[in-house]
Every structure is written in C-alpha cells, then in structure tokens.
Amino acid sequence: MKSRNNILRILALVAVVTISLMLLFGKKLGAFQHDHSAQNSSSAANSSGERKIFYWYDAMNPQHTYNKPGKAPDGMDLVPKYADEQPTGRAGQGASSAKAGGERKILYWYDPMHPAYKSDKPGTAPDCGMDLVPKYANDGGQDMAAGTVNIAAGKQQVMGVRTATVEQKPVVRDIRATAQIVPDERRIAHIHVKVPGFVEKVYVDFVGQLVRKGQPVFTLYSPDMVATQEEYLIAKRGEQTLGGAPYQEVSQGAQSLLRSARQRLKLWDISDQQIKKLDETGEVSKTITIHSPITGFVTDRKVFPNVSVTPDMDLYVVSDLSNIWATADIYQYELPFVKVGQKAQLQLSYYPGKTYSGRISYIYPSMDPTTHTAKVRIDISNPNFELKPQMFGDVQIKVDYGNKILVPQDAVLNSGNEQTVFVVREGGNFEPRKVTLGPAVEGNVVILSGLKAGETIVTSGNFLIDSESRMKSATGEMQ
User: Of 240, 288, 435, 473, which one is least surrounded by beta carbons within 10 A?
Assistant: First the structure.
C-alpha cells in the first residue's frame, strides 16, 4: 500500500514538470514566429518600393508637424515627410538626419514665440505648446548678408516665387504730350506808316491772303510826304546850280540840303526805286506805295479805302508760316528728361500715318498752376503750309538713357525710405539688397546702384520672402 502511494506521487511530479516545460517552450516558439513574421513583412514593404513616412507637416509652416494626415490650421492639406527626404526640423528626427552628408548641423531648438528659450533636443515649448524650431549652424553666418532667409524648394512653389536675370541694355523712353500749333513769333511782321495820311487804294483786302516780300499792300496820300518830295526836288535843283559855285560854303550847303531831304524820305520808308523815279521824272507823287516786308499770310487787317491812318495804328499783321511752333504740355515729373536740342515728332489725327519732325528750341520757365505742366517749344518746318495755327496734335519725345541696369518694377519693394530687391543665392537662400532707383520705363525701373548684370532676382512672391526675412531678423535681435 505504501509503495503504491509512492508511485502515484512520482507520476504527479513528472506531470507537473512536463506541463511547465511545454508552457515555457510554447512562449519562446510564439515570440520566434512573431519576430520572423515582422521581419518578413518589413522586407516585403521594402521590396514593394513603398516609402516610409516619418510625419506630416504644414507646407506654409514646416516647423508645425503632426503624427497623422489631416488639415493645417490655414486649411491646406498636410504634406508627408518621407524617410529618404531631407528633414525640415521635425522633433525626434533632426538629430539623426543631421548626420547625413551635406545637411546643416542643428545647434539647438528654440521657441519661435520666445526665442530666449533654448533646448538641446526637440520637443514642445512649455509656455505656448508650439513645436521647437531648429537653429542651424550656418544661420546668420558670416558668408550670408543680414536678413538672408532660406526657403525650401517646395515652399517656394507654394509661395509662387518667380525669378529673372538682371540685364544691362540700352534704355529708351517715350514722352508723349498734347501740343498746339502756333505761329513762329520771330516770323511775324507788323505794317505801320510813319507819317499820317489817307488810304487810297488797297491791294491786300482780306485776312488769310498770302503776300510775298516786296508786294504792294496799299497806297497812302500824305500831305507831309508830298511837301518833303517837293523839298527834295528844290534841294536837287539848288545842288545842281550851286554845286559848282566858287564859294565852298555855298556848294557844301546845297549838297547838305539835298542829303537831308533824301534821308528824310528814306526814314519815311520811301524806297530807293521811288526816289530814283522822283529823280528821273522830277514829278512829285501824290501817293506812296507801302510794301510787305516779308512773305506770309495776313492774320490781321485794319486798312480800308479812304480811311485816315496814323503811325500808332497796326495796319497789317503778316505771319510767315513756313516754320511753325508746336507748344507741348510736359508734366513736371517728366521735365528733368527733356532738354533743348532733343528731337521730337508731331502727329495729327487729320493726317493719319504722317509724321513731322522737329527739335526742342525752348523750355518755358513757368508752370501752369491748374495742370502742373510746362510749355515746351518745338520748331517744325512747314514748307507746304499743312500745319495751321491752333491745330492740336500729339508730340512724342524720345529720351535715351544709354546702357543701364534694368529690372521689373514688381521686383522692387519700396518702403518709402529705402528700396529692396531680393537676390537669389545658392542653396535656396534669398538675400535682401538695398538699391538706388532711377527713372521708370514702361513697367521696368533703372537701377543706379546695388545690382550688377547677371544676378538673379525675385520678381514675384517677394512680399512673402520679405516677411520671412523680417521675422528672422526680429528673431535674431531677440536672441
């Protein structure tokens, strides 16, 4: 009986040991199978070509990262960050990825709202809960100008950044203005008489008539003129009689009297031909003929038959229109580019396709207080008299600035006190550059200093880059 009990105890002990061993080896076998299946799935994922996603981030604010896809606060879809891409400063990934060749070294992480707070590892700010931003070793280095900002290529595309190459080329500008045609004041003649009298016959009897130089205009009867002619004839007969007298005083007196009478006739505009006729005929003319002093058109007339005239009356106005003036109204901001001697072209709507060339001869010294324009006088030849006074036309003046540095106006940020252009540097860096502006020419602007030909500048999206640059400069000052 006692031996039977011993056998039962031995069998129970063997059963307990067997069950324990089975449980122990079963767990190890399950762990082995789990590890083997994980390795197989990992190798299968790698062999299938799928890219591992580290995290998702906001394209406009890459420092804001998330553990799953979704929407950013600004409404844009979150962008995945893959394992084979250069990290953007994601917490927990920047330190390991910084070891890759050619990438920037991270010095520390800081709170963008409170840059004084720094950390030697990624994480979140204690005050606002924002992700810490990495501070790279080459940020604000000596090889970068103050305010230089680095923007990733993807973010540049989102911001709509466009660039252009700075060129140096001939710059020509057209100044356009409205002009009025007026007579050349240097070619206007006024006809007067020098002795009172009466008009007898009128040869030029309407305004607008074309007269030639020396052409008879009207005849004048003047009692004073008749008396002077008689005195001249008496003096001439006396000179003939007494010119050979033995007494020198007598002969010289007769000659002096003749010269005085002749000179008085000339001063009264009696021509040499009329005096010659008086010498030949010895007859006094009742009337004298007044001639036109120039070739031109009669623009004013106050002479009529049987009308009494005096020396103070403006009897005829004759204008030579073979050369005219075009007076253009130039705005005050364009005046510095207009010079005497510049070529100008005149076009009239009534003569389509025809251009009249001239030169600027004078710039008037005063401004019109209403239009804030100054008159500029242009001399234009008018041999066929096509251009008539009081016509209106369009004047075009070409301004040649020579070879200048020229950039689009959109590329310049003008704050009033200073003008800035962003220059593209290597590695996605954008450097703010102060420039001095010249005149604006058809959507472009001349750069007097600050840029050189061949450099690449930002023409679109520069406002957003300027915001990034100012934020970085402000952050640096706070640090």
Answer: 240
> What is the distance between the alpha carbons of residues 251 and 200, in angstroms, rounded to a whole number?
40
User: Is position 38 within any domain?
Assistant: no
Cβ 203 vs Cβ 218: under 8 Å: yes
Closest CA to 301 of 227, 199, 386: 199
Identify whether 14 is part of a domain: no
Which tops the pLDDT comparison, 339 or 269?
339
Domains of the chain: total: 4
Name the token pair of 211.
């007269």
pTM of the model: 0.56
Q: What is the pLDDT of residue 4?
A: 56
Q: What is the pLDDT of residues 147-181, one digit of tens each?
A: 788 888 888 888 888 888 898 888 888 899 999 99
Residue 319 burial by CB count (10 A; 0-12/13-18/19+): exposed, middle or buried?
A: buried
**Euclidean distance between CA atoms 58 and 65, whole angstroms:** 7
Residues 276 and 370 in one domain: no
Q: Which domain holds residue 353?
A: 175-184+320-401
Considering the domain architecture, whether residues 214 and 119 belong to the same structural domain is answered as no
Please tell me the predicted confidence (pLDDT) of residue 157.
Answer: 84
The pLDDT value given to residue 96 = 41
Identify residue 123 by its one-letter amino acid code: G
Residue 203 has what pLDDT?
A: 95
Q: For the domain that residue 438 is a member of, what is the CATH number? A: 2.40.420.20
